Amino acid sequence: MSRVLQGDRFNRTKWGGRMMGLARQVSTWSSCPPGRQHACVLAEDGRFVISTGYNGPLPGDSKCHCTGMPTEYCKANCKAVHAEVNALRNMPQGHMISRPLVAYVTKRPCQACFQALFDGGVDELCFAETDGTLVFVLVASPHLQFTPTPGWKE
Ligand SMILES: [Zn+2]
Ligand SMILES: [Zn+2]
Question: Which protein residues have a CB closer than 5 Å to ligand 2 (ion)?
Fold first, then answer.
């Protein structure tokens, strides 16, 4: 199964910068140590925020085990649900989504999250490389692959 994006209605340079700024702000809500804090903003038509998520504990698990712990502890013991999965969980139900649904993520997602984004109906992904460069890719299959959005240039 694959999906095809139609049109290129939103300015990716402009909205990528704006939404990544928002995602970076949301990432500070995570109780994982700095450098391990990540967030995902889901935006309809690439521009209208419909949900946010950050890496954090499971529902009912009031406290993250990483709170106040060093980065190495988090790397080895983190039980946080990834930001992408939390953002998908926070999406309103029964809402007609204006496409493309774009996920803005503060880092390159893992395979499991990429698949979750695909399964959740996300059309396009924008993530920040470690040097801060933004990359837009299509989410056209459940397999992690970074196919640049056609027509998108820095
Ligand atoms: Zn952690
Ligand atoms: Zn992940």
Answer: 82, 110, 113
Handedness of CA 16, 17, 19, 24 (dihedral sign): positive
Residue 79: both structure tokens together: 């039980």
pTM above 0.85, yes or no: yes
pLDDT tens, residue by residue, 77-136:
888 899 999 999 999 998 899 999 999 999 999 999 999 999 999 999 999 999 999 999
Whole-number Å distance, alpha carbon 110 to ligand 2 midpoint, is 4
Q: What is the mean pLDDT of the chain?
A: 89
Closest listed ligand to the CA of 82:
2
Contacts 24+ apart (CB under 8 A), 35-40: 35/71, 36/66, 36/71, 36/74, 36/75, 36/78, 37/106, 38/82, 38/83, 38/105, 38/106, 38/107, 39/83, 39/87, 39/105, 39/106, 40/83, 40/84, 40/86, 40/87, 40/103, 40/104, 40/105, 40/106
